Amino acid sequence: MYKVNEVFETIQGEGSFTGAPAIFIRLQGCPVGCSWCDTKHTWEIKDELRQPLGDIVIKTSETEHWAGVSAEDLMALFSREGYQAKHVVITGGEPCMYDLNPLCEVLHSKGYSTQIETSGTFTIKAPAQTWVTVSPKVNMAGGYKMLQSALDRANEIKHPVAMQKHIDELLQLLQHTDTTAKLIYLQPISQQRRATELAIALCKQHNWRLSVQVHKYLGIS
Fold first, then answer.
1. Which of 5, 95, 155, 192 could pair with 26 in a Cys bridge, judged by C-beta atoms 3.0 to 4.6 Å apart?
2. Which string of DSSP letters, residue by residue, matches 157-184?
3. Does residue 60 carry a pLDDT above 90?
4. What is the pLDDT of residues 160-181, one digit of tens each?
5. Which residues sit in the known binding site for Mg(2+)?
6. pLDDT at residue 16 above 90?
7. Distances (CA, A) of 32 to 36, 94, 121, 126, 197
8. In the predicted model, is pLDDT for residue 8 greater than 90?
9. Are 201 and 190 in contact (CB under 8 A)?
């Protein structure tokens, strides 16, 4: 069973799938503790806030409520809601707190592609064909360490950036990582002007890519 905070269909706004229609499955629970996190309502799992899956889908605001569901429950929900997207993004929270193999395997069997968005601080349990986006979280309040295995598994590394120290952290992480077949993105935190200018300059310097959270500019989920 997966603890799901919300499920919705939208346009992917970040990284290499920017612009692609996608169904987002947001899982509940994250102990990493990023100070600038924009989904802090997913951090804690409170038993008293469990709800039916139907109530999760019709949320009108961010809440800590969650539903316990199976992969089959989610397939039935996709059908019931009439979702058309064939790309599924599993995010959080920290989705890799869960074994994502069963969920991804069911999705693949139904013709969906899958993507995980993770901090890289938990072992990634997912099929080889799942696209893995690692947004490295270094020296966060929860005290979790970046896993080399997560960086090695990543198809893309999308690094949040606000200042030069974040660039230095990324360069240190990449020292022991073969990036030949990986996409490297810098993503300005909170769309700050200084952060964006820094990210653009470093993308040009290192031949990396810029991720600008298009959904926030568009004002969509």
1. 5
2. EEEEESSHHHHHHHHHHHTTS--TT-EE
3. no
4. 899 999 999 999 999 999 999 9
5. 39
6. yes
7. 12, 8, 8, 20, 27
8. yes
9. no
Tokens of 212: 């600008």
The residue type at 78: F
* Rounded CA separation 211/171 (Å): 18
Torsion of CA 172, 175, 181, 183, to 10 degrees: 10
Lowest average pLDDT, out of 14-28, 116-130, 147-161, 189-203, goes to: 189-203
Which residues define the annotated binding site for [4Fe-4S] cluster? 30, 34, 37
Residues 6+ apart with CB under 8 A from 135: 117, 118, 119, 120, 157, 158, 159, 160, 187
Residue recorded with tokens 């490295």: 136
Per-residue pLDDT at 217: 67
Annotated binding site for S-adenosyl-L-methionine: 36-38, 93, 135-137
Q: Which position has the token pair 């139907």? A: 54
CA dihedral 166, 169, 174, 177 (to 10 degrees): -120
Q: Which residues are annotated as a binding site?
A: 11-13, 26, 30, 34, 36-39, 91, 93, 135-137
From first CA to last CA, the distance across the chain in angstroms is 25
Pure H helices in 86-190 = 101-109, 148-153, 164-174
